[in-house]
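Structure ticket #2291
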Amino acid sequence: MDRTAEMNSTIPREEWLYSGHAACAGCGAAQALRLVLKGLGKRTMLVIVASCSTPIAGNFPFSAIKVPVMHIAFEAGGATGSGIRAALEKKGIEGVNVVVWAGDGGTFDIGLQSLSGAAERNEDIIYVCYDNEAYMNTGIQRSSATPWGCWTTTTPAPGMKTLPKKDIMSIMASHRIPYAATATPAYPQDLIDKVKKAAKLKGTRFFHILAPCPTGWRFPSELTVKLSRLAVETNVFPLYEVIDGERTIINRTPKGSPVREYLAPQGRFSHLSAGDIDTIQRNIDRNWERLKEKAENTQHS
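Resolution: structure written out below.
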């Protein structure tokens, strides 16, 4: 069932990310940040973990972001968000969204310990991982979010990455947090509605947002939204929610397009053989069936 069509809210017109920011043309991270801030509005404090988003926001004393921002080290996202929430509570300030904004390096890898600690304590924060599947800001090095078979500067062909992408949603769901969801810039209403939904909840809320990177993925900048959409329609990146770590809800039934349509425009996969693509397709099909099984088993919970 395509639940995206059922969502009734509209995209807010007010902008909280100014034009003139320092993102590359077609940056998926900037598109995602713009939409997240639209969903949350002005009562938001943003913690930016060291990543591409650090220079995107601009150099002090200037900022391209219209809400308070704190820039922090790679490993400190969960801890800093927790500290800001504690300070707000101590001062009796309510109704503020504390949002940690981190890349896959600062979430899947270096920041996972801090994030896990915050989730285990069920800190009242929203943690957003924008996933461009490598350490893009420091030179396109592989992370544990990098897909199998992918080129990076530390996995150059023919020595492509031979391990699968870490399943960060399952890791976060295992903490039994109130809410976890996936999203992409290609479905802005879906993303904004999920953000608004999360803002009404208490405790740790987690977002995994696919953010295509033209520079690191090696594709023309005008294809960012198209690739975001193809990731969903090929089952590479399904749109779904996990409630309380138990109930899985699939938000969009994809077309099931062949994965080669998603891989072909990206130079980072240009070295793959037909056999490699078949392997990726089998893995995607298996993961999609597992996700559907989870959703079917928990739909009445």
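Closing remark: The domain at 3-298 is CATH 3.40.50.970 (Rossmann fold).
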